[in-house]
Design brief:
heterodimer, A: 9 strands, 0% helix, globular, B: mainly beta, 53% strand
């Protein structure tokens, strides 16, 4: 699986938007970009995923660069509950591929009141 | 639907002992994966089971093993425990274990080896 690069940590103020970057310069054409997050003392949880187009759901938005070598997870209004480690993960969408996730170090997001 | 459950939540063992951890996936999910999380190595994939068969395995020694039952519940076993096995063990389930399937994680079992 291709690797991703994320900043170790980021800080945000409550109620403000947060843009979490991820670089994946060796992404292949069949790789989906997935984001998971891990709140303190919990298992990871799915946030969002996309292939080429920007995606929105109730938790976040995912902006994917045109060349797909980078992406940004956008939290529109950070809350204290969004303080977590955010993982950007590439997953090969080919049918034969199996489902284990390869986690990097992720970005630890701190949210200040 | 109930989420992924793991038992026990906390466990303390001594070196040389063995331990069995249990995971109940979301109803209807056929794939169960196990991960180890430590401060030093982060989250690492152990193995995946689908339809009672180990389908995929990470880079861990043979002391780590698992199995899956016909109801998709899974257990993992660690024999001859070492201090370095102290970690949070996470179980995740997905519908069919495909790379496009979302994985749903349990709260984990915190294992401490003394």
């Amino acid at each position: 699986d291709a690797k991703t690069t994320q900043p170790n940590s980021m800080e945000s103020n409550e109620e403000e938007p947060v843009h979490l970057p991820c670089n994946h310069s060796t992404i292949s054409g069949t790789d989906y970009i997935h984001w998971y997050r891990q709140l303190p003392s919990q298992g990871p949880e799915y946030v969002i995923h996309g292939l080429t187009s920007n995606v929105n759901n109730r938790m976040a938005s995912l902006a994917i660069a045109e060349d797909r070598k980078s992406s940004t997870l956008i939290l529109h209004r950070a809350t204290l509950r969004d303080a977590a480690v955010y993982y950007c993960i590439l997953r090969d969408g080919m049918e034969r591929s199996q489902g284990n996730l390869i986690f990097g170090k992720g970005t630890k997001l701190s949210v200040k009141p | 639907k109930a989420g992924v459950t793991q038992t026990p939540r906390y466990l303390i063992k001594t070196r040389g002992q063995q331990v069995t951890l249990s995971c109940s996936p979301i109803s209807g999910h056929r794939s169960v994966s196990w991960y180890q999380q430590t401060p030093g190595q982060g989250l690492q994939f152990l193995f995946e089971y689908f339809s009672e068969t180990q389908r995929n395995k990470g880079n861990f020694p043979g002391r780590f093993s698992g199995r899956q039952f016909s109801n998709s519940r899974s257990e993992m076993n660690v024999s001859t425990l070492e201090l370095g096995d102290s970690a949070l063990y996470l179980c995740a389930s997905s519908l069919n274990g495909r790379s496009t399937d979302t994985q749903y994680f349990g709260p984990g079992t915190r294992l401490t080896v003394l």
